[in-house]
Amino acid sequence: MARHEAWGSEQRRSGRRHLVGPLVLLGAGIVLLLNNLQILPWSVWRDIWQYWPVLLILLGLEALATGRVAWGMLVLLVVLIPVLGIGVSAIDFASYWHEATRPSNAPLTQAFSQPLEGAATAAVEMEYGAGALDVGPLPADLRDTVLVDGLVSGHQNIRFDARATVRNDRHTIRIAPDDGDRHFDLGRFQLRLSPTVPTDLRIEAAISELNVNLESLRVPNLAIETGASQARITLPAQGQTNASIEGGAARIEVIVPPNVAARISVDGGPNRIEIDERRFPRQGDEYVSPNYATATERVNLRIAVGASRLTVQ
C-alpha cells in the first residue's frame, strides 16, 4: 500500500507540466515565422528584447504554483540571453546604419571641393572608418573647374579634414577624419574625381559598404585596403592601371570593362572565387587576357583578400 501511495504521489508530481518554456518556444517560433514571411520586420526583436525579465517573473510564478523549478529553462536562458542580446544589438546597428547611410534620408553635413587650377596629375589618399563610401566621376557641370569634390551625409556631426598640396602641377589631396582617430561616425561619403586628370587613388577604409566606379576615370595607380562587408569595384576603361585590392570582406566584386585586357593574380584564401576564364584564361597562378601584352587599355590587378566570395568579370 505504501509503495502504491508513493507511486501515485510521484505520478501526480510528474503530471505537473511546465508551461512557460513551451509557451516561450511557441511564441518565438511564431515571430520567426512571421519574420521569414516578411509579415513582421526583424527589428521587432528590438522591441521584444526589453521585456526579457518577464521570463524570470513567469518562471518564478510557475515555481510557486507547481513547487518545481524549471532548471532546464533557466539554463537555456543563461545561454541564450547573451546570444539574443548580441543579435538584437546587431539588428540595432544594421537599422541605424541603414538609416544613417541612406542618401534620401541623411542630411548633408559637410562638403569639400578642390579647384582644378591647372593640375596635370593628381593623387588622392583617403582614410575612412565607418559607414558607406561611393567613389565616381564628377558631374558634367563641375569637370571644367573642379579636381576633387566630396560630400558627406549622416545623422551625426560627421566631419573630415581635406588638405591639398601642389608640386610641379601635381596636386595631392589627403582626406582623413579631422579628429585624428582614423574613424568616422556612420554616414555616407561621396568622393567624385575629375575624368580628365590622371589621378592616383589610395583608399584605406574599414567600412560596411564600398562602391567604386572608375570606368570613366584615368587612374594609373589604384590601391584599396578595405574590411567592407560588401565591395563593388569597377576598374578604369582607359589607359594602363596598376591596381591592388587588399583586406578582408564578406563579398568583393571586381568589374573589368569589356575593352580592357587584364592580368590578375589572387593571393589569400577566399572561400569562393569566380573569375571569367573566357576573358581571362588561367596561366599558372595568374589569369591573363590573350591580348594583354599588346593592349592599349589594360590593368595589372593583384588581389590579396580573405573574402568569403570574390568575383571578377
Topology diagram in text:
Blueprint: H1 2-14, H2 20-36, H3 44-49, H4 53-66, H5 71-101, E1 108-115, E2 121-128, E3 132-137, E4 146-153, E5 160-167, E6 170-177, E7 188-193, E8 199-205, E9 209-213, E10 221-226, E11 231-234, E12 240-247, E13 252-255, E14 261-268, E15 273-275, E16 282-283, E17 286-288, E18 298-305, E19 310-312
Describe the protein's architecture and organization:
With 313 residues, the chain is of the alpha/beta class. It contains five helices and 19 strands. It has a ten-stranded mixed sheet, with no helix packed on it. The longest helix is centred in the first third of the chain and has 31 residues, at 71-101. The termini are far apart.
Which key features would you list for this structure?
5 helices, 26% helix, elongated, disordered N terminus, 313 residues, 36% strand
Low-confidence stretches: 1-15, 180-184
> Globular, elongated, flat, extended or rod-shaped: what is the shape?
elongated
End-to-end Cα distance, whole Å, is 83 Å
* SS elements, strand count: 19
Q: How helix-rich are the residues, as a percent range?
A: 25-40%
Number of helices: 5
The helix-strand sequence is HHHHHEEEEEEEEEEEEEEEEEEE
Q: Radius of gyration from the CA trace? A: 28 Å
Give the spatial strand order of the biggest sheet: 5-6-2-8-10-12-18-14-17-16
Largest β-sheet summary: 10 strands, mixed
What portion of the residues fall into strands of 2 or more residues?
A: 35-45%
Structural class: alpha/beta
Mean pLDDT: 77
